Amino acid sequence: MQYPYANFIQQSFSNIANRYDSLNSLLSFGLDRYWRWQTVRELRSAPPGEFLDLCGGTMPLALALTRRYPKRQVVCLDFCAEMLHAGLKKPEIASSQRLLPLCGDAQELPFADDGFAGITVGFGVRNLSDLHRGIREMRRILRPGGRLVILEFSRPDNPFFKPLYGFYKNLLLPVIAGVLSGDREAYAYLASSIEGFLPQNKLLRVLTECGFAGVKARPLSLGIVTVYTGIVAD
Ligand SMILES: C[S@@+](CC[C@H](N)C(=O)[O-])C[C@H]1O[C@@H](n2cnc3c(N)ncnc32)[C@H](O)[C@@H]1O
Known about the structure:
Elements: H1 6-16, H2 20-27, H3 31-41, E1 51-54, H4 60-68, E2 74-78, H5 81-88, H6 91-94, E3 99-103, E4 116-122, H7 131-141, E5 142-153, H8 161-181, H9 184-196, H10 200-209, E6 213-220, E7 225-231
Parallel strand pairs: 1-2, 1-4, 2-3, 4-5
Antiparallel strand pairs: 5-7, 6-7
Helix pairs in contact: 3-4, 8-9
């Protein structure tokens, strides 16, 4: 099935694929590593089995999973082949026997039911055209006791920090990123998609509606991002 703005998303990521990692670190002042570290550790009590990193892009989160869990296989799925190719240029990923990149759509997962022990999604759910469908797919392929961990941008509510962050995200970021990446539209989309995305309580409600138990939201870095977790009840 072709979703409304999937082509725009794919094209935007393919335009910036080779610069994605360095831009990410630069624009987040290096915080992206810390955010991924916090995400990956949420899977420490997952049941035995493989992990899946969805919307994995250049595979930074999938790589962090292989490092932290040296006995697990990790599949990394993304629908933008250029992002996966850019990830495969990293020697540690190219030579890994435990990391399998796969091109596919997170809303129509090519996996059997109950197959995975844990799923991570870093900065991906915001881009899904049909969020419920995507989350239901994640629920379907997780085994009982399996865990879903979502890392996503959120909106800080600290009254002092909020205007400063708004200025950076809406004005500075699209300009700096546009110049450095050569694709200003992609980063203007980033700012507007953060603004238009669901607040924490609503995303938690979607997780519950799609069958996850014990859902929690943990804001990091004054709420610039939030780590969401949900469990498949045994
Ligand atoms: C902002 S990047 C995040 C990459 C990586 N997870 C990270 O932490 O840096 C979002 C990725 O989601 C992918 N994506 C968006 N919608 C998708 C979908 N429906 N199916 C698969 N991948 C998707 C894009 O191609 C892009 O690589």
